[in-house]
Amino acid sequence: MGRIHLFEFEDLEWFPAFLRDYGTDFLQFLSNKTKMYKMEKLNQVNEIAAKGLKAGGIEIKPMIDEGYMQIRKIEDFDGHVWHITHLNIEKFGQESK
Hints:
The protein is of the alpha+beta class. The chain has helices at 17-34, 42-54; strands at residues 58-65, 69-75, 81-87. It has a 3-stranded antiparallel sheet with strand order 1-2-3, covered by helices on one side.
């Protein structure tokens, strides 16, 4: 069965901003607490990006590779942009040495 997208209350103009902000903050808290989106390895970033592209997303820019950090930007079919990032903390700071 395909995805059915009706509406989201928080996208409607009349929806109170404080509730929208609370909902967003709560989702951020849950994702941080459960480490739902933690990308520990670069191949995880590439796997997630590949799944997004396979589902119909488009890569807005080619991967940005700074040596210690890699960033992928995927736009889904609803127009949301996903920034998928891997930061190698051991390499971070060594680039300037």
